[in-house]
User: Which sequence fits this backbone?
């Protein structure tokens, strides 16, 4: 198992190098001159030239990348060209907010999605099943920014129950987490349902019933555990998507997380911050996928990463 | 033949599946998977239920065990009406009636060790827990030709034949009297099939089991069964003691099936009766005798009238217009 984890971590290195190159290249394709953006509209051409030299922007891309990577390997992500503060500080300040948001959204999504999926599968073609699958379809299709604005309109403007943005109490967390989580809840509900239906068709479910087990034991002990693998896969992938989806949700709800930082930085041509933020999300994504693969081994005895048994 | 008391008596058992079509799931028809079958099985006997794929044999087995809710008819087990039983009574009945499935791969929960899978039933019925449970499971594993160390293994660590042994052990651990064996050897290699058949026979003798043995393999049924019932489109068309069935089958369908069994002796040239066409759809069965569309002996009356299931010899029943009823 430990050998497997180590191997996976080593494999993550080329992935992350690839990500860094891609981000590095793409952000430089965006039209706009960072030197001018930093120096201000009224700056003299000499000053802009000065800023450009300071930021190494007059050098070739490969030189810029080389310097960036050299610093990165020393733990230095550079400084924000905008606030002049170290990128690491900027990121670490915002990252916990994003994680809180994404994790809460995930919890909401899991609770809603799995319960809906299980009930739908056990009461197939019932009113509940049809209604929840229709809701799931809408949930998957509705764009996050639209859903967010609708929630703000209803719960903040009309009913006045919850704040429409910002951060502070748990009340501030409800709407953004709900907005972010609903699409994932819909997806989890659909996957749980189809995976459960697949498992419920198996003979071992009939076997379990023939043992004289009550239906709830059959559903949870025998069916659900076997139906979990695709659900966990989707949850893992979705957690990454949630971090990305946070970009929109955070912007709609003025939530001071990585997502909003990225949007602001892109608008300000703040290259180092954008690079750092994307790289951080990529690292997180890779780690989550590793965790999912490790969870598989606990969920299914047929999956084993050790070399103990010698395949 | 009425002298010994039958352990299982099935009368007019029906299982229809609704066909739903359209947005509003309107019921547009029924698949008559089991359409009024009668069975009588005596203690210690093996009843072989044979027929082509899709004729309703497995559905019949599941419905008898009330794993499926029947549409009509009655099932009496040891004189008690199975279909009228409440949940609690039914759960207790599970101790006495068990099932062995065809596919040893899908019939075992992949996440449970063999010990858990077999022992679970003991705990549910409050028969044995902990160490006692383990002893009981290990002893039944040994009975079924497995080893005690298999207790901690998962199903994927076993071969098909071993898995089927586990499936049999699982069914037997509650010490039932009656077992529905639903094509228990069809998914296995031929070399393993005979081992499992022998195991079933030994266990039957040792524990006094009664089997409803569902199969499409007439040679296997000939080996293991005392009595044979032939199913066609949800109905039993012939029901006879084994010897009589194999020596003088009366229903044209039985005759055709038996003519298709390969002979061990290549010198013997058998005249094969080739059935025309496919099995008709059970959602729209032919009029009259359901077999008339494929029957090589069909006459004018066959498409018009459903033949009665009548006594055609001592302890021999068939539904065919061409066979005389005997009283």
Assistant:
């Amino acid at each position: 198992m430990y050998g497997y984890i180590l191997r996976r971590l080593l494999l993550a290195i080329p992935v992350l190098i690839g990500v860094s190159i891609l981000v590095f290249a793409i952000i430089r394709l965006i039209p706009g001159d960072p030197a001018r953006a930093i120096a201000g509209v009224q700056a003299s051409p000499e000053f802009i030239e000065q800023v450009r030299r300071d930021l190494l922007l007059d050098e070739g891309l490969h030189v810029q990348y080389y310097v960036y990577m050299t610093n990165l390997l020393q733990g230095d992500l550079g400084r924000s060209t905008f606030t002049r503060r170290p990128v690491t500080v900027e990121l670490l300040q915002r990252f916990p907010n994003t994680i809180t948001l994404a994790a809460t959204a995930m919890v909401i999504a899991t609770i809603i999605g799995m319960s809906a999926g299980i009930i739908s599968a056990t009461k197939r073609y019932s009113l509940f099943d049809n209604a929840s699958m229709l809701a799931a379809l809408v949930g998957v299709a509705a764009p996050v920014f639209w859903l967010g604005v609708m929630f703000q309109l209803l719960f903040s403007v009309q009913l006045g129950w919850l704040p429409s943005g910002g951060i502070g109490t748990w009340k501030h967390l409800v709407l953004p987490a709900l907005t972010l989580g609903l699409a994932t809840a819909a997806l989890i509900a659909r996957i749980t349902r189809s995976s459960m239906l697949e498992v419920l068709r198996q003979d071992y479910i009939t076997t379990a019933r023939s043992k004289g087990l009550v239906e709830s034991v059959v559903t949870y002990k025998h069916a659900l555990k076997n139906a979990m693998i695709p659900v966990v896969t989707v949850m893992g992938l979705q957690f990454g998507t949630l971090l990305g989806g946070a970009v929109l949700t955070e912007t709609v709800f003025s939530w001071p997380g990585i997502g909003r930082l990225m949007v602001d930085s892109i608008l300000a041509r703040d290259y180092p911050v954008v690079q750092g933020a994307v790289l951080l999300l990529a690292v997180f994504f890779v780690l989550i996928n590793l965790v999912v693969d490790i969870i598989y081994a606990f969920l299914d005895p047929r999956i084993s990463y050790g070399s103990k048994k010698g395949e | 033949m009425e002298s010994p008391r039958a352990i299982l008596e099935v009368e007019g058992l029906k299982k229809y599946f609704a066909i739903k079509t359209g947005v509003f799931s309107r019921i547009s028809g029924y698949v008559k998977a089991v359409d009024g079958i009668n069975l009588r099985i005596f203690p210690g006997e093996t009843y072989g239920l044979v027929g082509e794929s899709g004729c309703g044999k497995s559905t019949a087995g599941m419905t008898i065990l009330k794993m499926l809710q029947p549409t009509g008819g009655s099932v009496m087990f040891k004189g008690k009406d199975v279909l009228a039983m409440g949940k609690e009574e039914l759960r207790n009945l599970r101790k006495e009636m068990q099932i062995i499935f065809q596919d040893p791969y899908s019939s075992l929960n992949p996440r449970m060790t063999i010990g858990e899978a077999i022992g679970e039933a003991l705990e549910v019925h409050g028969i044995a827990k902990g160490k006692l449970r383990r002893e009981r499971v290990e002893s039944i594993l040994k009975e079924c030709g497995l080893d005690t160390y298999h207790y901690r293994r998962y199903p994927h660590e076993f071969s098909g034949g071993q898995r089927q042994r586990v499936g049999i052990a699982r069914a037997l651990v509650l010490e039932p009297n009656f077992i529905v064996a639903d094509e228990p050897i069809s998914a296995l290699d031929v070399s393993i099939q005979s081992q499992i058949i022998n195991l079933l026979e030994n266990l039957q003798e040792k524990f006094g089991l009664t089997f409803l043995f569902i199969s499409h393999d007439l040679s296997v049924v000939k080996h293991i069964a005392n009595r044979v019932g032939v199913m066609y489109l949800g109905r039993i068309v012939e029901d006879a003691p084994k010897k009589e069935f194999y020596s003088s089958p009366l229903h044209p369908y039985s005759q055709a099936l038996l003519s298709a069994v390969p002979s061990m002796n290549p010198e013997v040239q058998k005249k094969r009766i080739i059935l025309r066409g496919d099995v008709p759809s059970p959602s729209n069965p032919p009029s009259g005798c359901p077999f008339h569309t494929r029957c090589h002996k069909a006459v004018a009356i066959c498409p018009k009238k459903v033949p009665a299931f009548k006594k055609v010899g001592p302890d021999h029943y068939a539904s065919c217009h061409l066979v005389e009823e005997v009283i």
Remarks:
- Chain A has two domains: 2-73, 90-299.
- The CA atoms of residues 97 and 257 of chain A lie 5 Å apart.
- The domain at 90-299 of chain A is CATH 1.10.3720.10 (MetI-like fold).
